Amino acid sequence: MSAISFDPTSGVWLLSTARTSYALWTDPTGAPCHLAWGPRLTLAAAGQLVPLPAGEVSSFEGSSPAGEELPVDGGARYGAPSLRVRFADGTRAFEWAHLGHRISEPAPGTTELALEFRDRHYPLAVTLHYRVHDDTDVIERWTALRNTGRQPIALLRADSAAWTLPLRDDYRISHVTGQWSAESLLHREPVPHGETVLTSRRGITSHHANPWLMLDAGDATEDRGEVWSAALAWSGSWHLIVQRTPDGRTSFTGGAGQDGAELPLGPGEEYTTPRFAALYTDGGFGAASRGWHGYVRGHVLPYPDETRPVLFNSWEATGFDVDEAGQQELAVRAAELGVELYVVDDGWFGGRRDDTAGLGDWTPAAERFPRGLGPLVDEVHRLGMRFGLWVEPEMVNPDSDLYRAHPDWVLHFPHRTRTELRNQLVLNFAREDVAEWAYGWLTRLVADNGIDFLKWDMNRAFSEAGWPARKDGQDVLWPRYVHNLYGVMDRLRADHPGLRIEACSGGGGRVDLGILSRTDQAWPSDNTDAADRVSIQHGFGQIYPARVMAAWVTDVPNQLTGRSVPLRYRFHVAMAGVLAVGGDLARWTPEELARGAELVAEYKRVRHIVQHGTQHRLRGPVDDGPTAVQYTTADGREIFVLVWQRAPRHGTPRPALRLAGLDPAARYRDAASGAVHHASVLTGYGITPELPAGDWSSTSLHLIRVDDVAADGTGPL
Question: Which terms are listed as keywords in the entry (predicted)?
Fold first, then answer.
């Protein structure tokens, strides 16, 4: 059976993935409606889900808020709409007229469905898009809206899609909240009746929430139970609205934008929403995460098969005190440690001596780099490392040559204070001249200096988000800003195929599927305290894989929390993602440098497992007990386990960690001790790792499958 099929008799479309099905139809009014999302169905079975004609509905109830593929504002609908429009004569209601559908295969292993509609009277065409891939259960959806008339139309809300869950006795929502330096803190709580809104109105994805959610019936665990989840591929303001209705149903809608902003759609213009992808599994939260990790690696990242290098970043070592001689000294120490990518952070350009000046003037500071960046780049390359640079292209300090020349380039309203956060203002990337300026200096910087890597930062949210030069500027700038940001990155990468980019926004302020489709890794948080990072990384990993999660080892006492934890613990926490070092290596003792080099070498031996393997959360950061994460190669031949424990209480038993996903007939040798373990014992009974005594203890376990073992468990090793 095709991945997408249609039954003209029942009028049902069925989308099939490897393990799940999604079914929909158009009801007698012409509206696209949901039928099923869950375990596999045949097309004939899905046809049995078409509802019988509804009886008389109470005049106080109207249509159910749940059940339409894209709920509109119109008729007797009183739930959260996914589509709200205002036509030229002031009419707001939308009425569906179905035109037809198209099923296509745009690439091998990929199938798309396009359902075409129009308003019954007004010149607005709406196409609902669905995409499935052979190698994932993730379903991608988006919507295209086109003005086919001669008068403008205002899009008051244009979500990407709405998703409906099957009827269950109860529902629970999983999502993350936080703030700067405390991002991605996981919450699981009952879904209340009414509407629950997750959103960012900041112009960026935000530190405070992330555009994904998971829903279950309140009984899912890490290893079992039905979970429905979704993630939005958008790097600006966004909203997700979960509805739990009085008749017991639950659905959610999501898209770009926030309340109060409308998007003008001129004659002949088309607006395409960002992708809103979703996944069903009956394997619990762990299977949902692994499904998302595989999807990100297979269908989001530009170069998913690459193994990310060990990175050193100069920020916590030097702050703004950056010069050629000091950076060369640090580079020598970094190379001796085993670092493969050396990144110079803030302070290398213009009049940048602190955070009050210089942003926007992107030329090397003459007194600090009298010969330009070339000699430093050459030395880093000579040492066998790639060279990276911190940039913040979307920002400007009022104390800069750029701002003095172009004060109109920032987001602002007439006669209103230009609010400064971190002593900076936001450049209006929605303007073509601003985007072209940014692209121009970035591509020259990379080409002229042999830059291999950019840490692309963005250190404040929008305020006074206006564009006085355009009458509709305060509305069009929100989506256009993001599209132009994407365009600059896309052009830059096309110019320089070897360039790699890290997404950063004051830490984890811009991490989403949209930005990850044009970057190579992300900075989850400016908080580098290893103790705090365990919880931050736990929430981050619910959707995003270790392959994109940059994690630093920095000095103690930690600059943010003042906490001191052992070097071994700091390394083990950072090994759970893309390992990096951010300490002041000039102050490390010979013993610390030697131990650090050993741990870097250990990571290099296992990073293919961490970055490309499947992840199982063996025990989350839920109490004083250990937290443990397992990574396994696709062929099951290698396993790497990391274990961290904060402050064990005397007399508290240590739980055995039961490994996951192993062939019970296999045996594994511990790469460190040589001990051999039966997989049936590791998965059925568990292993109790030996943790060093004291607070902030940690350990790692690298297991390699033993070949040529007899079926009875005996035989040569």
Answer: Glycosidase, Hydrolase
Q: Regarding the domain with residue range 73-298, which homologous superfamily does it belong to in the CATH classification?
A: alpha-galactosidase from lactobacil brevis (2.70.98.60)
**Of 42, 66, 275, 63, which Cα lies nearest the Cα of 165?**
66
Closest CA to 704 of 674, 682, 679, 671: 671
* End-to-end CA, the chain: 45
Nearest C-alpha neighbor of 627 from the set 660, 654, 599: 654
Write out the catalytic residue numbers: 457, 526
pLDDT at 713: 45
Q: Which amino acid is at 275?
A: R
Instruction: Report how far residue 345's alpha carbon sits from residue 356's, in angstroms, rounded to the nearest whole number.
Output: 16
pLDDT, mean over the chain: 95
Mean pLDDT in residue range 113-126: 98
CATH class of 311-606: alpha beta
Looking at beta carbons, which pairs linking 75-79 to residues 24 or more positions away fall under 8 Å? Answer: 79/243, 79/245
- pLDDT (0 to 100) of residue 1: 53
* pLDDT score of 59: 77
> CA angle, corner 112, sides to 158 and 24, nearest 5?
70
Distance in angstroms (rounded) separating the CA atoms of residues 317 and 342? 13
Domain ranges of the chain: 73-298, 311-606, 617-705
537-588 pLDDT, tens per residue? 999 999 999 999 999 999 999 999 999 999 999 999 999 999 999 999 999 9
Q: What is the pLDDT of residue 514?
A: 98
Q: How far apart are CA 175 and CA 172, in angstroms?
A: 10
Residue 657: helix, strand or coil by DSSP? strand
CATH number, domain 617-705: 2.60.40.1180
